[in-house]
Write a structure and sequence with these properties.
mainly alpha; 2 domains
Amino acid sequence: MNFWNDPLKVAADWLTGILVGWGMNDVFAHVLVVFVGIFVLILILMVIDILLVWIERKVVARFQDRIGPNRLGPFGLIQPFADIIKLLIKEDTTPDGADKVVYNLAPMLSMMSVLILWAVVPLAPVMLGVDLNTGLLFVIAAGSIGTLSIIMAGWSSNNKFSTIGAFRQVAMMISFEVPMLAVMLIPTIFAGSMGMNAIIQSQDIWFFWLSPLAALIFLIAAIAELGRSPFDLSEGESELVAGFNVEYSGMKFGMFYAGELLHAFTFGGFWGILFFGGYRFFGLEQVSPIFGILIILTKALIGYWVIMWVKYTMMRIRIDQMLAFNWKFLTPVAFALVMVTALMNALLRGADSWLYITGMFLSNVIVGWVSLEIVRSIGKKEREKVEGLKPIAEAHH
């Protein structure tokens, strides 16, 4: 078999042959090779994570008309490694009264919750960890571990500011997972499967063109799940010093920071998988799996750039505004969109592709327009109510 057609299988067979040649049992050799593959994937993700630190600093510097890292190494590329050394040699402290087991477990869970998501990410047609037929459910379940780690960190730190930050994360978790789950059903409707690879293979046309509103809702919910601005209530620096991680130092803090960056990159990848064809791009993925890997990583990086764009452009909102936005607007729109999509899919099944695409796209436009009109009408009534109360208040004074 040609190495470039299936590099993972060729490398795995080669390593298994060496181990068996040394006298190792076939089963143990296969298990060891799998563990080596997992270790290599984690190592690659860690290298990407280090690169993301440099990318984010360069991007925010561009947004804020600054230079960014430019001293250590060419273009400042060695700066993230200097930061790692700094975190490693910093004093590792545990606050008095903290629950030491939970306190120390939280950063590890934060990083682990991101890494296990990549078990179901198809990197190429022949390169994927586990092809679960319920891959989307796995993503939601595994992603929730990250939120759990934040709750654990805030509660175990024995600090009221940390606890408040953790409570806010609970509110965001309960709130924004609802619309996210709802719109993740839309690619499932189009593909007829919850498997990640099946969803990619079904996208002869990007699902974004069939349901752009679902892609937008997923992005908003993902930013809220990440706790990034304008939804960074769990670590509101101006109110909570640093939020849930205020008591962490050294590499424990670094694991939270690295987990956040990699989580954002991962959500950018899932956005690309669900709505932008994953590793597919004009058939290049069929030439070599290497092209598939480059394509999906590029789409993930573009999604990550959009998340950064939002973070460094919008101001933080209040907790009541965030909850009202989700429960009074985002969630109803998501459920309405799922019902409309399911109805249109049933009505247009078997129709010409151009009619199916046009019908789906226009149904999204109509749902979005009706939603905005309802919000505009309610907002107008609220303004009239407030303006009507002003003369009464002035008369009392």
